[in-house]
């Protein structure tokens, strides 16, 4: 993404961060980096000692094969060691580190004024209670649980409770459609679904339970009966008192009444009551009342599965990326600590949804492992106005802020005034993730939002990598707008040409990684063959990212975008095959071809070409229907303030 005119721009680290910084210079980074790649077992072994392990590895600290020509691909970090990630991010902080009274999350609802907070001790108790609930429902280690919730505290509670009992969570972003949820439930045959009654995203009501019910019915049609569904009463939580962890607040009560009133007026979609199937549905608050706040964790092998998270696949079906316990834990924790230069007094806010990998690693596991205070935001950047982000920053005195280029580009449209209306003086580090950031957006973020005093960390990584791969470190790396700069600890990038040769110096080609880092995915759930084919077949001995990349004369890496049939719309990956197969399911469509096209705000957008069957004619209605059909397999809306 480097523009010729921008090449000269280099932003040195800001001196004010240096005194307390974990990594205060480029040479310090280089020394640590060298050790991390030359002696990974020592480097990560030292880090692992900071965590609680019930028992130590029984074999080598790292064992792997990256070369398909030499046999099965596998990656094992600390195999045989036992631990529990929930214990490490909660109990260890409460008991050993005495952080019980520290705020784990400030929860900021969609509606300004609707907020709550939860301490580490309270979070631990809620998680133990829900872990006990899960066990009482017969859940055990290795079972899969689908979680389809908005950005509420119960989402973090549910995922951590799964981790506590060794069940694998599969979180499905609450903007996904019934088809997408059904597909994900079926793929990993979940024993249980956790969802909520409804929520507001901006001024749009999402009847989540109704969509979940549609998904459950679709599963039944395909021969799979979900056995249990736990429902959080979120929107109408006033009715059950202070359900979950959220405060009773007047705005929230108003919303709940609105839902009831709107129903009596016009919309048939809005139901006064949550649709209910007594055979499988259970209320969260009823199960939680009386559940014990103590729960012995399940001690898991470092290589036991922790979660599955689906990401678009070029085959047209989403892939269930599987992450395991030990390696993911130390990688998410360490990257969070260094990339945001985490300090104990920080208030950290990542605007992503927990339904994406960014939320898994950098809202839940990474920050909590460090004992950080985070903001959990239910809303969108444009509601009630386009200054919402900065009003939340001021409200909680956010120091480290992490968002997506698409959100920055969207806010740029509204000019500087909505930003400057708010102080933002608490901000220290600004992060971006999800897609290449164009230098113009980078410079606006730096100049307007960060007032030229906040370093920008442009973090390149993937669902598959579990954590940051290429990224600046705030007090160490001179940055160039649009470049994700250098590799994180343990990461060895290379650029290959078409025939698989490694290119040296200034070069452009396929971005690959040469050796495993602890957070790398271990397989595609239930489809190991696919894992090998997608990531290791093309260039034996390397992990293939699917991204193009350029290295400049100073060794800086610049991601140039996907080089497969995936495209990145507003920071979310889509595959052209996925949309094509959704389109041809429509009776009017004989053939469909989908291509990517640059878009000023979303980065890329879709152009869909269809050939209609005999007897159909293109009309506005049919176009609208096809647009709906195309997005059916995908999302109902994104959280970056745009709806697709
Ligand atoms: C793209 C998101 C350029 C890239 C964490 C990658 C980026 C895909 C950046 C993964 C960045 C992510 N610069 N491109 N800083 N971050 N990407 O799995 O194409 O949702 O392969 O993970 O997003 O998207 P995913």
UniProtKB/TrEMBL annotation:
Gene Ontology BP, a term: acetyl-CoA biosynthetic process
SUPFAM superfamilies in UniProt: Acetyl-CoA synthetase-like
Domain Acetyl-coenzyme A synthetase N-terminal span(s) in chain numbering: 29-89
EC number: 6.2.1.1, 6.2.1.17
Keyword Chloroplast assigned: no
Catalytic activity: propanoate + ATP + CoA = propanoyl-CoA + AMP + diphosphate; acetate + ATP + CoA = acetyl-CoA + AMP + diphosphate
Record has Ubl conjugation as a keyword: no
Chain ranges of the AMP-dependent synthetase/ligase domain: 97-523
InterPro entries on file: ACAS_N (IPR032387), AMP-bd_C (IPR025110), AMP-bd_C_sf (IPR045851), AMP-binding_CS (IPR020845), AMP-dep_synth/lig_dom (IPR000873), ANL_N_sf (IPR042099)
Domain AMP-binding enzyme C-terminal, first and last residues per copy: 578-628
Molecular function per GO: acetate-CoA ligase activity; ATP binding; propionate-CoA ligase activity
A cellular-component GO term for this protein: cytoplasm
Xref: Gene3D superfamilies: 3.30.300.30, N-terminal domain of ligase-like
Key words of the record: ATP-binding, Ligase, Lipid metabolism, Nucleotide-binding
Family: Belongs to the ATP-dependent AMP-binding enzyme family.
Protein name in the entry: Propionate--CoA ligase
